[in-house]
Amino acid sequence: MLSRYADVTQITRPEGRDRKGTDTISTVHVTSPEIEEGEDQLAFEQRLYEESLKVLDEGQVLSGVIVAKYQDELLVDIGGKSEGALPFRELSLAIEPKELNLGDRLEVMIHRIDEDGALFLSERRARALKTWEKVIQAHETDEVIEATVTQVVKGGVLVDLGMRGFVPASQIRRQPVGNLDELVGKRLRLKVIDLDHKRHRVVLSQRLVLEEELNAKKQELLGTLSVGQIRDGVVVRLAEFGAFVDLGGVDGLIHNSELAYERINHPSKVVKIGDVVSVEIMKFDADAKKVSLSLKHALPDPWSVNAENLWEGNKIPAQVVKVTPNYLLVEIFAGVLAMVPKGEFEPQRQYVVGEDFEVTLLSINEATRRITSSIQHVADIAPEEIAELVAEDILVSLD
Question: Is the pLDDT of residue 289 over 90?
Answer without folding.
Answer: no
